[in-house]
Amino acid sequence: MAAPVSVQVEFGGGAELLFDGVKKHQVTLPGQEEPWDIRNLLIWIKKNLLKERPELFIQGDSVRPGILVLINDADWELQGELDYQLQDQDSILFISTLHGG
Amino acid sequence: MAASEDVLALQAEVALLEEELRLLRQRLEEATAKPFSRHAREPAPLPPKAALSREEILRYSRQLVLPELGVRGQLRLATSSVLVVGCGGLGCPLAQYLAAAGVGRLGLVDHDVVELSNLHRQVLHGEAREGHAKAHSAAAAIGRLNSAVQCVPYAEALTPATALDLVRRYDVVADCSDNVPTRYLVSDACVLAGRPLVSASALRLEGQLTVYHYEGGPCYRCVFPTPPPGESVTNCADGGVLGVVPGVLGCLQALEVIKIAAGLGPSYSGSLLLFDALGGQFRCIRLRGRRSDCVACGDQPTVTRLQDYEAFCGSSATDKCRSLQLLSQEERVSAAHYKQVLDAGEPHLLLDVRPKVEVDICCLPHALHIPLSRLERRDAESLRLLGDAVRKGKQTIQKGTLFPIYVICKLGNDSQKAVKVLQSLSIKELDSLLARDIVGGLMAWATKVDPTFPQY
């Protein structure tokens, strides 16, 4: 049994608009059998935080193309992507890329 | 005393006439400018430069005394050429600072013309340039700032047919564009031509900046292998942008270009700068490195020539608003038709589904306002308001006939989505409705029916 994990979930670049415009969310993920990873976190976010148009955030079991995921300010690709296991006090940032100029 | 006033008046008149002459010359140039082609206007490579002139020393003295730049860096700047893709909110401040710093040559690409709604952020263009090509307007402004900088305006879109040729002629490329297909096109062209790419973007109150394909760093495709779905991309017209935000990003972009051109090296290769203007925060994040399996810059690239980027991205290479077609012809009316409904005093309800911030800008006073987002989430309070209005309206028509609702938004996209929502509702008050939307929305109302109605 993994203990509850407290993480900061942030949205930016317009992704926050799918979350009532709220950029920073301090969340506590309940204890569960499996350790929390990004894959589980996405499911949890979809169920608990996402307010509208889930297809603009999630595609399949991952984020949609054009959203960068950053774990403690580093590209998630450097850290195992969906399989990264969340540590207490991690900061997870979802940034929608901008194209305007 | 009288004599000196005469001199001042004459000087002012001369300045005025000179400005007029310059404008005439520019219009002539614009009128005779030929579309960019392989053979047109190929400026010779910039010659090496051994020393600064007395005038150059004075002009650049405040940056020459920086040991990091010095004469060596200034000479490198003077022999560098930079291709600026997009002369808008990013490209204007970028080109301005590059010219002021003494970059040798600027290629200015933009297919668009100056519009009044550009001026709050595209600071090289003035009121007098409305309707003129942005590439020429920017070149004229740069010419006034630093006549030693060679400006090559390309008043057309960068296309897969022209991009590679063009990029090869410049040392550094700045992506100041406003759409997804162009961003992939510029990146691939830079990879194929072996040029570093300084890329920035801005929207609403946020900006992003990074350097691609610099000395083994990642390219755009390494970071974004798959383009985003079209409906997830917001342009400046829909999302809004505070003018100074692209201004800040364009300046930072110019800084990176200057550092690359002068040989100091960039700071944001392999990392991404995020600017949050509302929170007043700059944040730098570490990006992945070059992907060995990248289709453009990987070990075995499959993108060996430029392709059709509009097809690849499923969107067009402009930042113009898209026109959706969700409803049938019978479910839509023109702005002129709605004017007739109003004039005839036919009972109906006008439902304006724009966000409140846009209703505050302008509205038709008799409309009921319920933002699309609330309809989409079936907000109870909004449905109650709508139900009340419909019930009241139904009292004015014969029993058994359908009650007409006309849905309006800014351009006629959201109004179609709202009609779809209304059709899907199964609420007692909201049955026996005939919901239709107004094609082209309030902007069509402004152009076709009421020219005094504001456009935004």
UniProtKB/TrEMBL annotation, chain A:
The keyword tRNA processing applies. Its main location: cytoplasm. It is found in: Cytoplasm. GO terms for biological process: protein urmylation; tRNA thio-modification; tRNA wobble uridine modification. It comes from the Eukaryota. InterPro entries: Beta-grasp_dom_sf (IPR012675), Mopterin_synth/thiamin_S_b (IPR016155), Urm1 (IPR015221). C-terminal thiocarboxylation occurs in 2 steps, it is first acyl-adenylated (-COAMP) via the hesA/moeB/thiF part of MOCS3, then thiocarboxylated (-COSH) via the rhodanese domain of MOCS3. It holds the Pfam family Urm1. The modification 1-thioglycine is found at residue 101. SUPFAM superfamilies: MoaD/ThiS. Pathway: tRNA modification; 5-methoxycarbonylmethyl-2-thiouridine-tRNA biosynthesis. There is a cross-link at residue 101 (Glycyl lysine isopeptide (Gly-Lys) (interchain with K-? in acceptor proteins)). Keywords: Cytoplasm, Isopeptide bond, tRNA processing, Ubl conjugation pathway. Signal peptide: none annotated. Component of a complex at least composed of URM1, CTU2/NCS2 and CTU1/ATPBD3. Belongs to the URM1 family. This is Ubiquitin-related modifier 1. The lineage of its organism: Eukaryota, Metazoa, Chordata, Craniata, Vertebrata.
Automatic annotation (TrEMBL), chain B:
Interacts with NFS1. Plays a central role in 2-thiolation of mcm(5)S(2)U at tRNA wobble positions of cytosolic tRNA(Lys), tRNA(Glu) and tRNA(Gln). Also essential during biosynthesis of the molybdenum cofactor. Acts by mediating the C-terminal thiocarboxylation of sulfur carriers URM1 and MOCS2A. Its N-terminus first activates URM1 and MOCS2A as acyl-adenylates (-COAMP), then the persulfide sulfur on the catalytic cysteine is transferred to URM1 and MOCS2A to form thiocarboxylation (-COSH) of their C-terminus. Pathway: tRNA modification; 5-methoxycarbonylmethyl-2-thiouridine-tRNA biosynthesis; Cofactor biosynthesis; molybdopterin biosynthesis. One of its GO terms (cellular component) is cytosol. It comes from Phascolarctos cinereus. It holds the Pfam family ThiF. In the N-terminal section; belongs to the HesA/MoeB/ThiF family. UBA4 subfamily. Zn(2+) binds at residues 219, 222, 294, 297. HAMAP family: MOCS3_Uba4 (MF_03049). Its cofactor is Zn(2+). This is Adenylyltransferase and sulfurtransferase MOCS3. Its EC number is 2.7.7.80, 2.8.1.11. The active site is at residues 236, 409. It is found in: Cytoplasm, Cytosol. Disulfide bonds join 313-321. ATP binds at residues 89, 110, 117-121, 134, 178-179.
